[in-house]
Specification:
alpha+beta; 5 helices; three-stranded mixed beta sheet; 5 strands; 139 residues; globular
Length: 139
């Protein structure tokens, strides 16, 4: 069973066939699918699943804190099941590929007190940008 399925079951989330398929589609490392990509993969496993069900299920999982919505530039939202391990993202500026990265150190510590403008900072989102090996090879 996937880590996401285990977490959802541990919360007592009612596991319908549709919810299970969406969770299974999101399973894995470096998964950052759009809702439409989740739907297309879910239809392969459960042909009768509707786009609305996928969108609603993704919204519920985000609300539960079991997946993260990732938005890069003006591209579609992507859904990341790696919600419980702090990480940042590495994004290809050409094709939009996203990878989870886990640099050492505390990015919050890199923000000096005089640059916080009195804010109580509760989180950090870092996005590294570059060109992936596939895009670099075709340049």
């Amino acid at each position: 069973m996937s880590d996401l399925l285990e977490r959802l079951r541990g919360r007592g989330w009612r596991m319908t066939a549709q919810r299970r398929v969406v969770a299974e589609v999101l399973d894995g490392d470096h998964v950052h699918l759009t809702a439409d990509e989740v739907h297309a993969k879910a239809v392969d496993r459960l042909p009768e699943i509707s786009r609305a069900t996928v969108y609603n299920t993704l919204g519920e999982m985000v609300s539960l804190g079991e997946i993260i919505e990732v938005t890069t530039d003006r591209r579609a939202k992507r859904y990341d099941p790696n919600a419980h391990r702090p990480h940042h993202h590495l994004v290809c500026a050409r094709c939009g590929a996203i990878r989870d990265v886990h640099p050492s150190g505390d990015p919050l510590a890199d923000l000096p007190a005089d640059e916080r403008f009195g804010f109580t900072v509760s989180g950090v989102e870092v996005t590294y940008r570059g060109i992936c090996p596939n895009c670099a090879a075709t340049a």
